[in-house]
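User: Could you check the structure of this?
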Amino acid sequence: MNKEIRSLKVLLNDMKDIEGFPKGEDEDILELSDPPYYTACPNPYIKDFIAKFGEPYNEETDTYHREPFIDDISEGKGHPIYNAHTYHTKVPHKAIIRFLTHYSEEGDVIFDPFCGTGMTGVAAQNTDRKAVLSDLSPIAGLLASIYNTPIDSSEFNRRTATILNEVIEEYAWVYQTKHDDNNFGNFNYIVWSDVLISPFSNQEFIFFDAALDKETNKVNKEFLCPHTDAKLTKKMCKKSFVQLYDNALGKDIEQIKQVPVLINYTYNGKTYEKSPDVLDIEIIGNINNLVCPNWYPTDRLPSGDESRRNDKTGLTHIHHFYSNRTLLVLSAIFNRCETNHEKGWFTSQLINLSKLNRYRPNVTFPYNPLSGTLYVSSLISEANVFTAYANKVKKFEKAFQSILSKNMVSTSCATNIGINDDTIDYIFTDPPFGANIMYSELSFMWEVWLKVKTNINTEAIINRTHNKGLKDYQKLMVDSFKECYRVLKPKRWITVEFHNSKSSVWNAIQDAMIKAGFIIAQVTVLDKQLKSFKQVTSAGSVKNDLVISAYKPKKEFENQFLSLAGEGLEIEFIKMHLNHLNPEPSIERTEQMLYSKMLAFYIQRNYSVKYNSKSFYKMLKNNFTEEDGFWFNKDQLNNYQEFKQKMKLENIDEIELGAFQLFVSDERSAIIWLYSFLDTPKTFQDIQPAFTKIAFIGDDQVPELSGILNNNFIKSEDFYRRPSSEDEKLDLTEKREKELMKEFDILLLEAKGSKRKIKQCRKQAVLQGFEHCYKNNRLEDILLLGKKLDKKILENSSELTDFIEIAEVNIEGF
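Assistant: Sure, the predicted structure tokens are below.
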């Protein structure tokens, strides 16, 4: 045991109370760790790493300034590092490089609290930066460490070749199949089929034989019962079960009955297919009767929304997901893996070699598990373990050739990072996204071999089995982003890439960042087909990869804001925010978005709000400059005009949609889009087709397009235009707010007079009413209506929940 391991061993007991400390014995955690750069637990050496490579923050000498990153990005998924190991989610390091070089300098320290396989660290290596990487998952920590620890790739090649050769010498016979009377080939894969019971004959039949069309090589959804010729589907049939003795568990178990139906093999360089013969069945029987000499995991699958989906078929323990032949060879390989790089190589094929690997007749790729699930098909492809790992050696060798320097890796929860305040120069992260992926449940197949498993208590997911809902997920994300906010230097940026199709989860992420103190400056969506970013402001249905850019305010402003409870700092806030935006057309520069940002910033901190929308507009007009419907600090206007000249634009509506676009999903985003679109007067016939093309209004009771136009714009003859004078603008604002308050008062009366939940409403009216009540200390009315609003309304509007939460805090404190 070297001195670093001895040092870590002494510290382990003191760290076990840290949130997210992994599940495992001390010796297994130490076996996996490679201190000081990597620990399979919270890394106690991170502060030393930052002290060595980082620059202390000094506000007096700090000249840092960046605007949000906007550029086309290619994902770059073809790199060996990206393809070496299958993991639930990954952002290609080449894409991250573009963000790193924009937001940070050479020598800076980058942080990723949800690092996954450590691609942020790989990006840092390639840009002469240092990275601190952290993830709750032990398998993620292991993979991040091997991608951020340089090794001799030729030595790795020699070691893995030795391992494979030794195991092949011992077990080559398990993959042999008879080609003819005198010769044997080696099988590439063997197909196993479920045995089903026909509802018409009540007799067994082999699914493969009945459903596979031999001419088209496709599996039919409808097929004939072999016994009655009646039409069947798989759902109509029962599964046949068989009693087995489980040597590992020492008891009889019942599992779905499966039989071998097809062998694909190679002989003399040519590929052949055959039905299993007597010798093949005999070899399978001999393997099943062997006692495996090497250790392999036999853990029960954990409870969860995904992990126990196969209990009904008898696949209850981890070793049930592998054939006896595969377990025999896997355990022999794992028993010879000594280094973490070898263990990473070993885990890379565990899913592909399991019963999750579907047989798909017309798909040539050998490994076809259903991503993000533990789905076991009725047709399973049991692949050759030796071929699988031999192919992976080449990929890992190429990947390891690209690793340039060491970075810091910690296996820890993002809510307790162990980094000093104001020490990180930039944060890039790809956090867990709600209920999309059950990370710890899927990682279990890897982590049981490592004997160190994820501590699910602080796992940021939505999971019914674990009683984790949206609120639990959001709380963990708030605590995580608070830690990010604490360690990030003032004026620096955080980039959050996020994937989710539910607007409620998308709102939870944005709200968590705002609650943590960050100011969101830009939201973009990655169009994977066009490979470009398009600006968005909100999304009722988020179908793409979103990128949120946010910054931490400078320390002087933050201290002043806290000491004065925000009093009189509205102008300073807008000035600071505009200074963090690109001098280009941006929805963040619209009056509505600026007011929304300021309102959220004040309400989140429970400070009084001095301005309404009318007085806010007057404040903007007196202190800032407007052009094309966008607001600028006076010293930014020249840059904006230079941008227009460079783009050869006379009017803002000449800009391509790819450069300026938002998802119209509610009333406010509709108004913002229309305001930008009406840079020149247009008829309803001009507006409607363009609006319909980009509007995706959900369950919000938004007025018809004509109503929105009449309430927010001036109609001259057949043309709609923006208000051109202050009087016109203020008249429209007053008229609109009166209408919204009337609707709010009706909703409030309904809430007082009925016990039923309000399923639908005009959210903008509720927001207007909540703002009015907050300013006039009518907190009881906010709570009263908030309790009557349907859960879905609140989940899809973080602004409404902000008012309700602040009202709850104030009333309870009072």
